Amino acid sequence: MAEFRTCPDTGFKIDLNADKLIKWNAVTAVVFLLIGGLFGLLVALTRWPAVHLLDADLFYLALTAHGLDVLLVWCIFFEIALLYFTSAILLNARMVFPKIAWIGYWMMLIGALITNVAVLRGDSSVMFTSYPPMMAAQDFYLGIILFAVGALLGCLVFFATLHVARKEKTYEGSIPLVTFGAMTAAIIAVFTILSGAIILVPTWFWSLGLLSHIDTIMYRVIWWGMGHSSQQVNVAAQIACWYAIAAILFGAKPLSEKVSRTAFLLYILFLQLASAHHLLVDPGLSSEYKIFNTSYALYLAVLGSMIHGLTVPGAIEAAQRKKGLNKGLFEWLTKAPWGNPVFAGMALSVVLFGFLGGISGVMMGTEQLNLITHNTIYVPGHFHGTVVVGTTLTFMAISYWIVPTLWQKELVFPGLAKWQPYLFGIGMGLAATFMMGAGTLGVPRRHWDMTFADSAMGFDFPAAANLMMGLNGVAAVMGSIGAAIFILNMVGTILWGKAKVPAAAAPAEEAPAEPNVTGAATSYGSAGTMEVPGTFVLAMIFLVSFVLYYFVNWKYLSSVWGLS
Amino acid sequence: MGIFPPPQRVWWNQPIEKSEVMWITIAFIWALVMFFMMPYWHLVGEQNLSNEAYKIKPEVYAEKVETWAAKYTVREEGDTGIPVVRPPAGSDVYMLGRLWEWWPVLELEKGQSYRFHLSSLDWMHGWSLLPENINIQVHPNYEMIFTVKPTSSGEFGVICNEFCGIGHHTMVGKIHVVDK
Amino acid sequence: MSDFDTGPGGTDEKIPFMQQLLDSPLLLLVIGIVSPMVLYIVWGVMETIAIPLAQ
């Protein structure tokens, strides 16, 4: 029934249906990254006070399109590709229901196009969040619903493939850790899509005139069950990619299957609760509800993230030390392949996601601290620290391995690829930092003119706020150049890349370790010996920064007007 | 390796490496500290948003605010035609958000506590008090009530930081805080 | 894989409960949907409904 080929690089058995679906989903994702990225550049250039590029109506249109195309469309198309890769290919299994996977693909694509057309028409500039009672054209909601149902079909195919692979015994024992991470992403995705359906279907009816009223608090509660959880899908998928890259490049084994999988279990149980981050200064919800949910139940999902933050670099350190890079605390790190974009992108994303996205997210997700950040540009600063320099950078990094491997082609611009993760990661990392800086001065998000020139009363921001929004623009241009190089490299490789010389004859593979070579890595169960001292030191540096930043913000909160 | 199934049939009983155990312990303690900071601040902190709220029709809220404003208006704000309302120290104060203004302008006394009422007459708005940087989500059909105690005097801006249409960036209000 | 380690008890060794749970995607799927559905969505919607009318 299913036809297979064998991957010459990895030895994996590849179902041809999965092969084709992964390629189509990944390429579509990159196209939407291009579209959404361009809108993002326009937004950044408009918020640069000295440039102020677009008019107000076009700015709000571009901002709506930017949010939709990158937060939703780019990430989820890429994640569907990852789901098929981590199920069918990593399990050497046949893909179940390829026809349904194709229906899902086309629903997602058509849905994304419908919503984009609605936005570009100019009558649906309601932002990604589309809060009622502001109403978009009905096809705006319809497109998102179609897209979500398509993605749900993708998740269904993933779970069915897992199930059948197990029944047909295509692997022994448990599924690989990377597949387990992808499964975590898929589980959160199903919750995400269900929440979306619960709220967007009635909202669509409302836009058709079939319902008279949508309650705004209820909308925000349920919508964020989708809006925030969809970003948690990204987190889980990105961490699965980190483990995959550690394995592919270094032959690294997880320090402990038990610990890493339990950390993913904490995600499955609690990560979605963080949707409450958005509701902390909304009327009528109790503090019990806010505190329990915003803290992911005692910060157990944050604990999960902090575990991954140790075990991913820890696995690499252990593998490197096994190879003899044992000098001092950090030889394993300094002698890592920093010129290989797969590693550089992943390493940068681990650091930037933790320091920029992670710490800021926990800070502003604190019930009271949210008062001094809610709806300021600190919020986009935070999620550019997660979705851009975390997820997007990780997806770029793994693309430098997936695309040449699946297509069996050489990268067209290997020289540019070396620099690309730094250009994009540092550029967008700075953009996130400047946005957070401006946000602490109260600069609003989703705002066309922070000089309030057309306003009867006006308000003057300090010069530092304007400066930081200007620097944000410069940094965003740098990041955009990085993104453009990535897209050029991927599209160029797929269209014009030279066919790879069969792996056996290739003199030097870019990746030092072949994924099908086992034994180069650490063994389990070395309890009692401190195997990863370098990683532990780095983790402690992270923790100290986290603690300091967290309490600095409490200090800042204690200086504002009293509220009770 | 992470991309292959674990090499053992039973991996749950494998011992855990020491630095992992230490890190998990430290991280869990930190998680508890962060969790208990929130209830702790409810007990000792001065900045906690009350969750008191009521369902209300926008026209009913508008009438309430207008009646109240008429009673305590002291002057107009410059040449804007917008009233400046100075309620008795420690009493109820009202503000409403609508396309695209925060109405009316308030004059409060430093160090006094006021019961602050806030709602929207049309779309969602974001009440952002600057340069204090206190931010609250304002819904139509819901009146929220919280206690505000200005601890500094001067002129404060109130801008909108929830997107509310094409004039969103012109939506600016004001609160004066005077020393007694 | 030929070097698959079946453990000291061979294939008879009982698989611990937690590992069985982590090896059950569909069970995890159910837990991952029900947990936030109850703790976040249902609780939140109930609180919204409970907001009283203004006097």
Question: How would you describe what is shown here?
Answer:
- Chain A is mostly helical.
- Helices cover 67% and strands 1% of the residues of chain A.
- The model of chain A is unreliable at 504-529 (pLDDT under 50).
- Chain B is α+β, with helices and mostly antiparallel strands.
- Chain B folds into 2 domains: 15-48; 52-178, Cupredoxins -  blue copper proteins (Immunoglobulin-like, Sandwich), CATH 2.60.40.420.
- Chain B has helices at 18-44, 58-72; strands spanning 52-55, 73-76, 83-85, 92-98, 101-103, 105-109, 114-120, 125-130, 134-138, 142-149, 154-160, 172-178.
- In chain B, strand 2 and strand 3 (83-85) form a beta hairpin.
- The mean pLDDT of chain B is 96.
- Chain C is mainly α and 55 residues long.
- The interface between B and C is medium-sized, with 17 and 18 residues.
- Strand 3 (562-563) of chain A pairs antiparallel with strand 10 of chain B.
Short description:
The complex is a heterotrimer of chains A (564), B (180) and C (55). By secondary structure, chain A is mainly α. Chain A has helices at residues 16-47, 56-89, 98-121, 138-167, 177-207, 216-250, 257-270, 287-294, 296-322, 331-334, 341-364, 378-407, 414-440, 463-496, 533-557; strands at residues 4-6, 13-15, 562-563.
